[in-house]
Every structure is written in structure tokens, then in C-alpha cells.
Write a structure and sequence with these properties.
The chain is an alpha+beta fold and 362 residues long. The longest helix has 21 residues. It is globular and about 65 Å long. The structure holds thymidine-5'-triphosphate (TTP) and magnesium ion (MG). The site of magnesium ion has 4 residues, from β1.
Length: 362
């Protein structure tokens, strides 16, 4: 990469640990090596409730993935090694990894438990040097923590993250400036950051399947359909993403908690008691993170696994437990009037903003 310092392009690196929780379990139990390992709820011989948190790549061969009911994972692979999550250990390992990564650039931004962005533009001259640095990072993590990670290198965070995901586990993918659009074009729109199942379906409905389709689409139609996000999707599909590493603190989009009952229930007292506990947990996280919420959503999964959500946006921002509980109760009432047994109940708050400067009132 030629040119004066001021013209220098950005080089961003994204690191994502491979099958993080299960990799730690494998490390701690060498006899798990090369066997399918699933971290999550107790499978109880296929009658278990709750979900898979993650699984190693051997288990993924059986089509098992994060978020899948543990009973389904059992059906797909009853001989796997099933482990309950040990969050205390995972947090400790996460902190060690972040310590290693932080040393490679002060422009560092952790992203969740096991991922981080690094702006290494000042550390390296070009993409070749960036690869050397990435290899060093991979070695240092392997040497110190006996864990593998995947790395994506690109001119911005969005493409670095997609590149990292492109080749897992133990991958290293580089996308240089003039190859960004070519790299993105054949990928499914679902690979784009912030595009979830609902948006993917909407995009599919208008014939957009790949990021290349999105890039070639009439931006005014996208704006009509998706508002301001439509314009952003279009820009991102062209590989344009300006956000700086650690530049703006990520504002959480939502905070939620859910719980699966030990057995399906229709006892209203029990359900409302559980709802109250869940609200309390969500409330504590709101206060800890100094946030205000405006939207409350209740999720119910019936015994037959049919799952529904129902939300309400308040007229004001709040951080009051009372507002959360009352709204959640009202929303839940709509689901519980038919006396059907339920399996899971959850509460989520969204439309969040910082409460700094405001007192919290219970
Ligand atoms: P991810 O990085 O999404 O997944 P992963 O590290 O297990 O696998 P990959 O190799 O594809 O990166 O999430 C990091 C950890 O967060 C994961 O090990 C377990 C936890 N997690 C959950 O608890 N629930 C979830 O739904 C997901 C996706 C992850
Ligand atoms: Mg990971």
C-alpha cells in the first residue's frame, strides 16, 4: 500500500474464538477431543428442556447449533458429550484473551464474550504485515490459552467480521480494499451484520438473496421498504462501513431474560411468579447498565413449541420495575386466557437509551 500517511487506508482485524464454551471444555478435559461436545441444558435422556449454548465442530456435523432445543440435539446425537455451562471459567478465559488482544492495538473494541475488533492501521504498513500480525495473535492465544480463533482482515469492521466468519475454525481471511465487493457479492444477505431472519425474509420476498443482489437493488425502493436502514443496507452491501473501532460505544438494542419451566404449566400463580422473577432480573441489568427502556415484549412458548411474542411501547422512557412488571403482566394476560400449558416465558426490553443523569426509581 503506497502513499503518504494521511492517505493510508484503514486495516481492521476481527478476532472470534472458535466454538468458545465447548473449546474451553475440551481444553479442560482432554478426553473430549475429537468427540462431539455440546454445552447447554441437561439433556435428561432426550427429555431435557432448555437449549444448546454452543457445540464443537464435531457436533455441528450432526446439524446441531446454538439455540437449538437440547432435546432435539439429543435426537440428532445422543452419544455426544453434554456439559453444563461454567460461566465463571468462561469469563476468566475471556478476560485473558481480551488482555492479549488489547496489547496489539490501543484501538481495541471487545464485541461480546469471545470477539473483538482491532484497528491495526498504525501497527502495520500493508495487508501482508497485517497477516503476520494476525498469525502472531493466533499463536499467542494458542500458546497461552490452548484455544484457536479465526481472524478476518479488511478495510472496515463490517467486512472484517464477515471475513472472520467466512473460514472457521482456525481460519484467517483477508479481503483487500479493491476486492471487498467481489468478496461480499455471492454471500447470503444473512451474513450481513444486523440482518436477522425477519429482514432476510423481507429481502427474499423482493428477490434479494445475496449481498450482491442487495448492492444492485434500487436504493429508493429499499428506503421505501426499510426506512433509513434500507439506505444503510445498500451502502453496507457495497462494503462501505465507516464506524471506527471503539469509536462509539455499542448501545445495546435490547435486554432480555427467559426461563423454561421444569414441566409445562398452566397454573397462573406459578406463571405470574416466574414472570415477576424474570422482570426483576431484567430490571437489575437495566439499572446496572444505567439504561432506560420504552418497549416491553413478552415471549411465550406453548407446550407444542409454538412461540409467540407480544410487545408494547410505552409513552415514556422508564427504568422503573413497576412499569416493567405491570406491562409484562398485561401482555402475558393475552397469552394466558386460554389456559393452555406453557413451556417457556421470557421478557425483553428494547428502545433503550442511557439513563445517565436520571435517578432510578423503583
Ligand atoms: P459465538 O462466537 O457466536 O459462537 P462460538 O464461539 O461458540 O462458535 P463459532 O466458532 O461459530 O464462533 O458465541 C460465543 C459464545 O457465546 C459461545 O461459545 C456460547 C455463547 N452463546 C450462547 O450462550 N448462546 C448463543 O445463542 C450463542 C450464539 C452463543
Ligand atoms: Mg466464537
Amino acid at each position: 500500500m503506497k502513499g503518504s500517511f494521511s492517505e493510508k487506508k484503514r486495516i481492521i482485524l476481527h478476532v472470534d474464538m472458535d466454538h468458545f464454551f465447548s473449546a474451553i471444555e475440551e481444553r479442560e478435559n482432554p478426553n473430549y477431543k475429537r468427540k462431539p461436545v455440546i454445552v447447554g441444558a441437561d439433556p435428561r435422556e432426550g427429555k431435557g428442556r432448555g437449549v444448546v449454548k454452543t457445540c464443537n465442530y464435531e457436533a455441528r456435523e450432526f446439524d446441531i447449533h446454538s439455540g437449538m432445543p437440547i432435546s432435539k440435539a439429543w435426537r440428532l446425537c445422543p452419544n455426544a458429550i453434554y456439559v453444563r455451562a461454567n460461566y465463571r471459567l468462561y469469563k476468566k478465559v475471556s478476560a485473558e484473551i481480551m488482555k492479549i488482544l488489547r496489547n496489539y492495538s490501543e484501538k481495541f473494541q471487545p464485541w461480546g464474550f469471545d470477539e473483538a475488533f482491532l484497528n491495526i492501521s498504525s501497527q502495520v504498513q500493508d495487508f501482508d504485515e497485517a497477516i503476520e500480525l494476525a498469525v502472531n495473535i493466533k499463536h499467542e492465544i494458542l500458546w497461552n490459552e490452548r484455544l484457536t480463533c479465526s481472524v478476518g482482515i479488511a478495510p472496515n469492521k463490517l467486512v472484517a467480521k464477515i471475513a472472520c466468519d467466512f473460514n472457521k475454525p482456525d481460519g484467517l481471511t483477508v479481503v483487500i480494499d479493491n476486492e471487498v465487493e467481489k468478496f461480499l457479492a455471492p454471500l447470503s444477505v444473512r451474513k450481513m451484520l444486523w440482518i436477522g431472519e425477519k429482514t432476510e425474509n423481507k429481502l427474499n420476498e423482493i428477490g434479494i438473496k445475496t449481498i450482491g443482489d442487495l448492492a444492485g437493488y434500487d436504493v429508493s425502493v429499499l428506503i421505501e421498504k426499510f426506512g433509513v436502514m434500507g439506505a444503510r443496507y445498500h451502502q453496507w452491501a457495497h462494503g462501505i462501513y465507516k464506524s471506527e473501532v471503539g469509536g462509539r460505544r455499542r448501545i445495546r438494542k435490547s435486554i432480555g431474560h427467559e426461563s423454561t419451566f421444569m414441566a409445562n404449566v398452566n397454573d397462573q400463580d406459578l406463571i405470574y411468579k416466574k414472570l415477576e422473577n424474570i422482570c426483576q432480573k431484567v430490571y437489575e441489568r437495566i439499572i446496572r447498565r444505567k439504561l432506560l427502556f420504552k418497549t416491553v415484549t413478552v415471549k411465550i412458548r406453548y407446550g407444542n413449541f409454538q412461540t409467540y411474542t407480544h410487545g408494547k411501547t410505552l409513552l415514556f422512557f422508564s427504568n422503573r420495575l413497576q412499569d416493567l412488571q405491570k406491562t409484562a403482566q398485561k401482555l402475558a394476560q393475552g397469552f394466558l386466557c386460554n389456559n393452555e400449558k406453557i413451556r417457556l416465558i421470557g421478557v425483553r426490553v428494547s428502545t433503550l437509551k442511557s439513563s445517565k443523569g436520571q435517578r432510578s426509581l423503583v
